[in-house]
Amino acid sequence: MKQFFSLILALVCCLSLNAAAETAAATTPEAQTACAVVEAIAAQDYSAAEEYFSEDLASALGEQALREAYEPLLQVIGAYEGIHEITQYNEAGVEVVLVQCAYEKSGLMFTLTFTDASLQGLFMQLVAIPEIDGLEAGIDLVTREEVALRAGEEDETLATLLIPDGEGPFPAVVMLAGSGPQDKDETSAVNAANRPFYDIAEGLARQGVASIRYDKYTYAHAAEMTEDEIAHLTIQEEYINDALAAVAALRADPRIGDIYLLGHSQGAMLVPRIAQAVEAQGNLGEIAGGVMLSGSPKPLWQISLAQNVALLDEEQLESYEAILSEQIQLANSLDTLTEEELTTKTVFGVSAYYQKDETSVDAASAALENGGRLFIAQGSADWQMTQADGLEAWQTALSGADFPVEYRLYENLNHLLMPQEGEITRTMMDYALPGHVSQQVIDDIAAFILAGE
């Protein structure tokens, strides 16, 4: 049930290679075995691959399981083209071999682990290969700087500041990522070639808009977070503290003019609340406006409920009805729960303590109180945020606004605002192919921001 209720508002984490890794040819015994296993799997000769497995690995990942794990990927990434790179390193006595393979449409990383030369582990994950996936290098006519948020503090976080070429001051956006631990680029866990915030930041810089983005607190400081901190995590720690520090850094920079908040998914849902937090500081000035992408004015738990229900057929929905009802009742009673209940119970897979804090500020009401210009957009192929919960809900909630609100619905763009390839599967495989945020989206955001200058 925990997996069923896992929040899927955002794609989280990315595959990163160990800093001590060394690129090497297949000269070590482990590397040679790894290549043999990968070549066998690529040839769909699973019994040949299994011959190299340790007894424990063979019992856990037999021929049939290997087939079921590998062959569905081929429908997405296309035909095997060969080994692209081999990397090997030792970690705590375990030899780890990374075999990066090129396929017709993307890359696939095989991670094989060896103990005493025995193959004990095998994992597969889609990855980016720049030459294949078309990852763009940063443009030259942009100044990139590293900025320390809360410099010198235990929770110091590094941010990337992009300043366009030319004379400022430039309008700037503070970028607010979606739910879960996210890096500064919002790198997809499904395919690391997909980096929405990288695309948007670079694209805006080309058009005269600066940006600052950073790893979320729950990504940058995950290793240091105690159990108590995790149990009592709120929007303040996860989003607001970093956003305030980012705004302060921009305010101190003479090259920066008006400041906007740009949020994606849950980050979009929190733009109004964070704008209020900025202005409540008293010394950070006003936020000029907000860009809200693939978000909703509804509470987080309601979006999670809608996502989970949408994934169930009628028979499954009937079997889960009692559990769903229990979760809905719990969500509606957050204000009555004790401290112990809030920190021990979950609502649709997320801490009740966190859910209570998230629901404490109504996004639409906060937006109306703020009165700043808004740009609200989503893709028509976004199954994680339906139009009813997203764009249409915003239009209804902000119908009485006395300030400019621009709404955009982009045809055939998914939750990442990238083109949807093929039929929608309503699974993470919809994000498996490498893509880029639509240029039209970036152009429209830039036009919205520059129109306020």
UniProtKB/TrEMBL annotation:
The keyword Ribonucleoprotein does not apply. Residues 36-118 form the DUF3887 domain. Residues 1-21 form the signal peptide. GO terms for molecular function: carboxylic ester hydrolase activity. It comes from the Bacteria. Pfam families: DUF3887 (PF13026), Hydrolase_4 (PF12146). Residues 199-418 form the Serine aminopeptidase S33 domain. SUPFAM superfamilies: alpha/beta-Hydrolases. Keywords: Hydrolase, Signal. Gene3D superfamilies: 3.10.450.590, alpha/beta hydrolase (3.40.50.1820). InterPro entries: AB_hydrolase_Est10, AB_hydrolase_fold, DUF3887, Hydrolase_4. PANTHER family: ESTERASE ESTD. This is Alpha/beta fold hydrolase. It comes from Candidatus Alectryocaccomicrobium excrementavium.
